[in-house]
Structure formats: C-alpha cells, structure tokens
Amino acid sequence: MKYVDEFRSAELARGLSAEIASLVRPGETVRIMEVCGGHTHAIYRHGLEDLLPPEVELVHGPGCPVCVIPMGRVDDAIALAEEPGVTLATFGDMMRVPGGRGSLLEAKARGADVRMVYSPLDALALAARLPDRRVVFFAVGFETTAPATAVTLLRARSQATPNFAVFCNHVTIEPPLRAILETPGLQVDAFIGPGHVSTVIGTDAYRFIPEEYGRPVAVSAFEPVDLLQSIAMLLRQRAEGRCEVENQYTRVVRPEGNARALAAIDETMELRDDFEWRGLGTIPRSALRIRPAFAAWDAEELYALPGIRIEDPKACLCGEVLTGQIKPWECGVFGTACTPERPLGTCMVSSEGACAAFYAYGRLRRPAEEPVGA
Amino acid sequence: MARRRKAVLRDELITLAHGAGGKATRNLVEALFLDELGNEVLAGLGDAAVLPGAGRIALTTDSYVVHPLEFPGGDIGDLAVNGTVNDLAMVGAKPLWLTAGFVIEEGFPVADLRRIAASMGRAARAAGVAVVAGDTKVVERGKADGLYVTTAGVGTVADGVDLGPSRVEPGDRVLLSGTLADHGMAVMVARGDLQLEAEIESDTAPVHELAAALVALGPALRWLRDPTRGGLATALNELAEAAGLAVVLDESALPVRPAVNAACEILGIDPLYVANEGKLIAIVAAGAADEALALLRASPLGAEAVLLGEIRAEPAGLVLLDTALGGGRIVDMLVGDPLPRIC
C-alpha cells in the first residue's frame, strides 16, 4: 500500500535496529516510555520489541484515551443513555469499558439506545435523523480528538441543532506527563512523544520535559520504521550529550501545532478545576469542560448526572500500568480475572491499552504466564 | 499445555458480542446450547455434522441477518446459499439439498424479495444444489429489519473422508484459497455510514469445488474451514485450541487487496479478523502442500491461493504471526465486534 509500505520496510527496520544496538552499552538498561496508546498498539502489532536489543526496555504510558476514563464517568454515561429520549453515541472502544454498573454494551442490551459512531460529526448527523430524540455524544480523548468535538459544537451552534449535546471528557496530555515525571523513583530515561496529539499541540508543548525534568523526547509517527527511528534519535541524543525535544513526525507535526484546531478547542472548551483519571487519581486542571456559551449543548448542564466517584477494583493495578511502574503481566489479575472479554480495568479494553495490546499480541514473550482462564 | 478449557457464560443478557463469532460466541454456544442440547454429534462443533447410522450424511444450518440486504458482490440470497454450501463442503461433503426459511417484515417490497430469491436460485444452480423445502413467516413492521433468511443444508460424505482437528500434525502446512477480508469490508463500506468510498466487492462464492479438489488428495488433507465471522484469526485459534498445536503464519504471505487493506488501515481494523464468504483454509500434509496449492490455483476461485504458514507442536493452543518486519506476535481470537450483522 502506497505511503504505508515504505514505513514498514523490513530493510529499513533492520538498519535502524542495528544502529540502536550500536548506541547502547552491553548490560545497561535504557527505559523509554511511549506515551501514546497508538504507539503501544503498533509496537505489539509489528513485534517491534524483537528488533530491539535487550538493553532497550519499552515502558507503556498513559496515552490511551479510553484507559484513563474513571468508572464514575462511565456510570454517568450509562445514566445518560438510560434517560428517556436520549440516544448516546460514542466510539466503539468506550462501549466495553466497565463502570460500576457494567458497560454501555450491557446497558444497550438492557434497552438503552447506544450507538457506535466514528466521529462526533456522525453523532450530529444522527441527531438530524432522529428529531424526536436527543443525541448525546460521549466525548473522550486527548487534544487529538478534542478539535473534532469542538468543530461539532461550533456546527451544532451554527445549524442551531436543538437535539444534540456533548458529554465532555476530553483530557490534556501535559498534566499526566507531569504526574509521571513527579513519580518518586521514576525509572524512565526518555520519552517517545505522541504523534497525533502533537499535530494539534505541536512539539514545543513538550519542552518542559527536557528543560524541567532532564529527559529527552522524540515525537514519533506510528509506523514501525518511525518508532525505530525515534528510539534511535533518543539514543543518539544521549550519546551526543543532548537533551531536547526532537520531531521524527516532520511530515505532519509542526513545533507550534495547529493554530486553527487549538482555536476551535479554546472557543468551545475551558479547563476544569480538576478531573479524576483512572488509576492516577484527581489531577488539577487536567481536563476540558464545555464553555458556558455552549451550555445548550452541554450534557452536564442539561441532565443531572450521578457524578459518583467509584473506587477502582482493588485487584486492578491500572494506575501502576499507566504510569509505567509495572508491566501488564505483573498485575495479579492480568489474564485471569481481567481479560479483553471481561475487562476489570480499562487498560484491558482498548486495543491501545497496554494490557490489551500485550494480551492480544505479546504473551508469547512471557511463557511463564498461566493460560487465560475464562 | 493445550489451552482447551471449559467455556463459561457469565453474561445475563445477550449483547452484540455474542453474535460476533469470537470468544463470547463460543461461550454462548458451548456453555448454553451445547449444555442444553449437547450430544455426540453436536459436540464436534464442526461446520456441519456428519450423521452416523444413515450412510454418511452431513447436515448444517445457518441464519443470515446481513445489513444491508444487498451489497457489492452479492446479497442475502446468494450469501444464504453459499454460506451453507460452504459449511457442508468444509467437512468434505458433496452439498445436495437445502431448505430455506424466510422471516419477512411487513411492508417489504415484493420486487426486492423476488430479486433476492432469484439470486438464491442462481447461486443454488451454480453450486449444484436444490432448495427442496422452505417456510415463510411475516412479522410486524419494525420486528425484522427487512428480511432474515435461514438455510439448512444436507450433503453426502464419501467413505474414508475424515477431516478434523485431531488429524492435524506438527509440520502440516496452512493454505488459504485467496484474499482476506473482502466480504466484511464490502458490507461495512456498503452501509454508507463511514463516508468511505471504495470499490470493494464481497467474495461470496461456493467453495465446494475447491474443497472437493483437495478431498481428492486423500489423507494428506487434514482439516478445512471457511473463515467467516471472526475471520482467519478466529478460525485458526479454534483449530489451535482443538488440536492442541500451534499455528504459525507468515505476515508477508497474507493476501489482502490494496483497496481492502487501505479501508482496514483507515478504520483501524485488522484484516485477520474480518469475515470472508468465499474462501477456505486448508491444512495439508507438508509433502502434499505444493500439489494442494496447484489444485487450488487451477480454479478461478482459488487463483490467488497462498501457502500461509505451518503447524508446530509448541506453543500449543496459540496462533503466532511472524511479522513482515522480522518480529513475532500472538494472533488472538476476536474479542468484541468490529461490525455486527455481516452475514
């Protein structure tokens, strides 16, 4: 396939693999965190770890938008879906995320009207087709997907669509990165910066990582050759004594980001005082809410939501996985009580979640694992 | 260390996942239907049952709820014939007779029904089968989304033909009769709600002649399966579990049409999990692999057949993929559903 095969070339990959091996000292350990769930998925899907020397260890970070949604917010979405006259629209992955009262998929089986969409604009179009119902879009995601929600809100206003609303759960990437960097005993030496988020916020947004925390960053695209090149860039920085933000994804990402997308977010959304993150706890000023000017399309204004905080299941170590403190297989319920079929924690739901990606693709590397028990 | 384990159904309500052909479907079939209806013949859970004591008769049934009813490359009518013909062919049977049950929604245009019935007729003649019994029910508007079709099929199995996971041995080769994911992606694009325009046609076709050509290889043919819901990945996982062996695939050998591959990339769907309706997977002895491949390629339906991988003893119960990049990974069963109601 044109424009894809080039970035999956085995020959290029072998060259980069050799360069990476030449940049590490035998026996040392270099821990590199890929922040983005899309990277985690690509690493496992293409078996990338097999191309790395044992000295390079990849740590999977918090950038899976589905994985960071706390159970209480899922319950709020279920409550919305059960409101008379409401059709809840969301991305497919969110349908299986467990809340305190089951998942949206189960709510749908009980009779709630839950629809899967690929974009918030599809949800707005659905509202036009269902004039007797209110379509509520369950919005999740980092700055990657927030512009699409913002544009949809702007269009809802310009079209004066009365029967559409957004349940906003958009989050921002910097606060969880700071939370990880502040973790006592942090064992991450370098970061592969997220690609799609960076198309919106730009590479300058990560300068605090080298400047305040002394860790290099390489913003990376998603194909296997891209990821290998980013790892090589990080190791080259180290070898040359540099510590900065580099951009591997130059074909799309600019230092200043996308001004129009940022303006659309700013026009429609503002920072919340705080927001609960799955496994990370409450982080101040880490998420977006809809501005009062758009209250007519804000589900949190239109409906009384339970808003109850629900403890993560005790056995579930999503937080430790999301901050890179443990590997998925080190969680006690991984592959036993928690499987993609019946996930306990969100990391096991989305194919971008570290646990689901490892479960689906990577178990072979850990033959000691007990076979999954259904 | 075979991973075969007893299925458990913990769910209280049927969700769409139970129809997806993956793990939830297996749990429903094994922990509910097999629990309540189980017997020696049903317990084999093959594509069709080979009935003892009545000569060698193969019997199967399948319901078709595809949406939309007509899609590029086919419609619910030829799908309902080909799907059942293929299920018979996968146990090495010669398909002979079909029954057809129609659940029709009030208000359904007769012209559409005739077009679909005509398509069924053409498919039946092409496959050399006859629809010999049928039934029609009409339900109130809004209760059936147009039309559902159920077909049952009967065929005969020649003496000595015995296909199944227990016959598969380490060293055997994995063959696939053509490109992957055409049907599922054709239906997905035909729904029109993705605003994706791509010229993708369903591969719906009867593969009984391909199967018959392979059956002629004798005992060198071990196992056949048509990778429908859940795709190649799910079918091979079922084999790996049932046989207690490993299936190892070569990613660079996977045949996917460029337009299908592009649609899968855009939507983030892995073609390994997408349904096919005119393909078969064959496990053959290593020494017969070249001949089997030549037999498949001799037919237009198998012109793009490939050697996809091999069977190994370990790690038992798993499907592995050697990636084109030089890495390796597990190919798990389908969980959840990229798209309901494709067949």
Commentary on this structure:
- The complex is a heterodimer of chains A (374) and B (343).
- Chain A has helices at 10-22, 37-45, 71-82, 104-109, 120-129, 146-159, 174-181, 196-201, 208-213, 224-239, 259-268, 299-302, 318-322, 354-362, and strands at residues 30-36, 56-63, 86-90, 113-116, 134-141, 164-170, 190-193, 217-219, 245-247, 269-271, 274-277, 281-284, 288-290.
- With 374 residues, chain A is α/β, with parallel strands linked by helices.
- Chain A folds into two domains: 1-309, Rossmann fold; 318-360, no CATH class.
- Residues 366-374 of chain A have low confidence and may be disordered.
- In chain A, helix 4 links the parallel strand 3 (86-90) and strand 4.
- The longest helix of chain A has 16 residues, at 224-239.
- Chain A has a five-stranded parallel beta sheet. In chain A, strands 4-3-5-6 form a four-stranded parallel beta sheet, sandwiched between helices. Chain A has a two-stranded antiparallel ribbon with strand order 10-13.
- Chain A starts with 9 loop residues before the first helix and ends in a 12-residue tail after the last helix.
- Chain A has 14 helices and 13 strands.
- Chain B has two domains: 46-157, 60s Ribosomal Protein L30, Chain: A (2-Layer Sandwich); 165-330, PurM-like C-terminal domain (Phosphoribosyl-aminoimidazole Synthetase, Chain A, domain 2, Alpha-Beta Complex), CATH 3.90.650.
- With 343 residues, chain B is an alpha+beta fold.
- In chain B, a hairpin with a 5-residue loop joins strand 1 and strand 2.
- In chain B, helix 2 (76-89) packs parallel to helix 3 and helix 2 (76-89) runs parallel beside helix 5 (208-215).
- Chain B is globular, with a radius of gyration of 19 Å.
- Chains A and B meet through helix 1, helix 4 and helix 14 of A and helix 1, helix 7, strand 13 and strand 14 of B.
